[in-house]
Amino acid sequence: MTTQNARGRRRATGPALELQVSEAVAAAGRPRDPHRDARRKRSPFRQVTEFAGASGVGQKAGIALAATGLILTVTVPVTSPMTATGGVGSTEAALSASVQPEVSAAAGAKVDFSRSTVSTTGDPDGKLKQLLSAQSAGSVSRAASAGSLGAPLDTLITASPFGYRVSPITGGYGEFHRGQDYAAQCGTAVHAAASGTVTFTGWHPYGGGNRVVIDHGNGLETTYNHLSSIDVQTGQKVTRGDTVALSGTTGASTGCHLHFEVMVNGDVVDPTGWL
């Protein structure tokens, strides 16, 4: 009969020891991750920011971290297109595709921003100039001329239309009315229907009273009659909408109004075809 130390403990020499030895051998044969040690040396905060930058949320994450005071410098990643497959080569190709080619022009190249080459609904003067530069006013169709002139008054209320009518002066039938009469109190602002050059200001001896004539080019003219006063001079350049006079009742007139005419190559035409 042998005696044993009650305080001592025997080491196991059975299967448990063999299991530990086999795990060590397997670990020694497993391929080692070359970046594992580097990752372990990084702080958890560094790992989070690197993951955010790689996953495409670096900008938002960086701004959020900067706002909380955790970091002082935020690097915003480049938002170039990236491809999920194809390796490094395809990524470089996608990045190079985002580079814009250089645009160059010859030293003598001319860029024309002339208003006459632009015709839009927001540029009625450009539309009219283009219309008249292509042909004379006499060749312009009614469909093309409609809306090319602006209103000579802020509010147009027809008092007497263009064409034959009963004369308000003599009462006789068959008088040819050369323009369009619009009701307007004396002293109402009268506007240029389009840009042009004032070619006449003064008294019209054939019933027009105080009269203004504006030449718009290529045979197109407008006249403004029975004016109480005139605000422009002969030879003056005006633009569409400029106040050229105030309405009145001078000349062969029975009351305050504006007599408005449109002339094409010296002949009067119906103003409604141009307004």
Question: What tags apply to this protein structure?
Answer:
two-stranded antiparallel sheet, ten-stranded antiparallel sheet, 275 residues, alpha+beta, single chain, Glucose Permease (Domain IIA), elongated
Number of helices: 7
Q: What is the annotated CATH architecture of the domain at 137-273? A: Distorted Sandwich
Task: Name the CATH homologous superfamily of the domain at 137-273.
Answer: Glucose Permease (Domain IIA)
Q: Determine the CATH topology of the domain at 137-273.
A: Glucose Permease (Domain IIA)
The pLDDT mean sits at: 76
N-to-C span: 133 Å
Share of helix, binned? 25-40%
Q: How much of the residues is beta strand, in percent?
A: 15-25%
| The first-level CATH class name of the domain at 137-273 | Mainly Beta
Report the radius of gyration as a whole number of Å.
45 Å
Series of secondary-structure elements, N-terminal to C-terminal: HHHHHHHEEEEEEEEEEEE
Helix/strand layout:
Blueprint: H1 15-29, H2 36-41, H3 44-54, H4 58-68, H5 87-97, H6 124-134, H7 142-145, E1 158-160, E2 163-166, E3 173-177, E4 180-183, E5 189-191, E6 196-204, E7 209-217, E8 220-230, E9 237-238, E10 243-247, E11 257-264, E12 267-269
Antiparallel strand pairs: 1-4, 2-3, 4-11, 5-10, 6-7, 6-9, 7-8, 8-10, 8-11, 11-12
